[in-house]
Amino acid sequence: MERDRERLSINAAKLYYHSGYSQQDIARELGISRPSVSRLLQHAKDQGYVKIQIFDPVEDMTQLERRLTERYGLREACVAAATINDEQEIKKYLGRRAARYLDSIVHDGDIIGVGWGTTMHTLAASLLPHPLKGAQIVQLEGGVTHTEGETYANDILERFAGNFATIAQHLPLPVIFDSRAVKEMVDQDRYIKRVLELGSHANIAVYSVGTVRHNALFFRLGYTDAKEKARLQESAVGDICSRFFDIEGNICDAALDNRTVGIKLAELRRKEHSIIVAGGEAKVLPIRAALAGRYGNVLITDQFTAQALLDAPTGGTAGEVLV
Q1: Contact partners, residue 51, CB within 8 Å, separation at least 6
Q2: Cα–Cα dist 163/95, whole Å
Q3: Taking the CA atoms of the chain, what radius of gyration do you get in angstroms?
């Protein structure tokens, strides 16, 4: 008798949860009363024959954000729910999530410094119109290239300025000079000096993290020769605003850094909002290194990258395999 009840309970549960039958339909199918069906379904749950699992993507992202914040000592973390673990697809979701975050924090009078690159270009295209009074948009690094490649610097800056109803302050220079002496001389130009100081005083800075892969945008733009590229790939794991750092977040090529036009990484530590927008498998190690150097207090990433960052061992060595 008990075995019959168990089998009836399981059959009722299969019809209800798998086949989508109503309790009235099940009663008719099994030749029992509707209250009996209700009791059978409850019995199936009580005995563990039925286990109901609810996946709440909002709650799941919240848990990842909380864990990232605690693990890496962040002011805030935002996790975008990308559909697939694909670098190009992830950028779309990062752009939208970063746009919403910016919309939630900007105020009149803000100075917003922006980097360049493909992730930032996607973000710029996703911005939510939010006119500001007395705000300024400033370019954080030089964006003139030596090739036909595109940094998207001008388009990004103009989109930001248009979105926030203000004007853009450009750095119409290459990000790397061949000579430190020439770079330091250019830095003294009145206009250039003012833009650099504006970037230094920005209370919000938003930028991505680059890699040292062979196809990294920085290399494609022709800023380094083959020898310098090889040297960077030996010691660096990534860059922010074309300033390269090792696994511990330390500047790894002082000579190159001294020829770089733009914000110094140490200045990012003093920002109210230093926002890293980055995701994808190849960005995991550069993000970790950037956070080790405390170059960002806000991280906007996707759930795949977030989980990889949480699964990563504490610390790291320069000998880790780069993707």
Answers
A1: none
A2: 14
A3: 26
Contacts of 156 (CB under 8 A, 6+ apart): 114, 116, 120, 121, 123, 124
Report the amino acid identity of residue 76.
Answer: E
* Tokens encoding 208: 């991505």
Is the torsion defined by CA of 61, 129, 111, 197 positive or negative?
positive
Please report, in tens digits, the pLDDT of each residue of the chain (323 residues total).
Answer: 566 788 888 889 988 988 888 999 899 988 889 988 998 899 888 888 887 765 555 557 999 999 999 999 999 999 999 989 999 999 999 999 999 999 999 999 999 999 999 999 999 999 999 999 999 999 999 988 765 557 789 999 999 999 999 999 999 898 889 899 999 998 899 999 999 999 999 999 999 999 999 888 888 888 888 888 899 999 999 999 999 999 999 999 999 999 999 999 999 999 999 999 999 999 999 999 999 999 999 999 999 999 999 999 875 443 343 33
* Four-point Cα dihedral 151, 153, 154, 155, nearest 10: 80
Residue 113: strand, helix, or coil? strand
Cβ–Cβ under 8 Å, residues 309 and 288: yes
CA 36 vs. chain centroid, Å, equals 53
Rounded distance, CA 283 to CA 270, Å?
24
> Residue 35 corresponds to which amino acid?
P
Write the DSSP assignment of 48-90 as a string of letters. Answer: TS-------HHHHHHHHHHHHHHHHT-SEEEEE--SSS-HHHH
Q: Where are the beta strands (DSSP E) in the chain?
A: 76-80, 111-114, 136-139, 168-169, 204-207, 238-240, 243-245, 273-277, 298-302
Kindly tell me the burial class for residue 40, based on how many C-beta atoms sit within 10 Å of its own C-beta (0-12, 13-18, 19 or more): buried
Which spans in 225-302 are helix H?
226-235, 254-257, 265-268, 284-292
